[in-house]
Amino acid sequence: MAKPSRSLDRVQNALEEHGLEVELQSFPDSTRTAEDAARAVGCEVAQIAKSLVFRSAGSLEQLLIVVSGANRVDLGKVGEQLGERLEMADAKSVRERTGFAVGGVPPLGHDDSLKIYLDRDLLGFELIWAAAGRPDAVFAVAPQELLRVTRAQVIDVR
Fold it and tell me: What are residue 86's DSSP bridge partners?
């Protein structure tokens, strides 16, 4: 069970609004990296759903890509699929747009609406683990359910 906080409440409320009953879990150690999170929950690194915020180099519009913890985003490949050049968003703008700090950005419950993409590799798992709004908290969810509630577009990221 996670210790109460405003960030966790926002994520819990977003999950409940979409009819998902999941338990947010917090840990004494950080779950900021995919490796840390996998170690904390006892799963494969590939089952960790990293929420990474990028921006279009042209429009500066931000988007979120939920990526398997085992994968690195090939910005060239993803940019080709989306028809624009992408770059990582800076930590300040991530917090401003999502309301969450890097390392704890969840795949839903953001302050602003972001276009969301989901790494195809995550669909190969029965259960994945995503950040729950803080760098020490996560929740487990079926990838198909996450896809449904985020209305994400599935893409190849590597």
Answer: 56
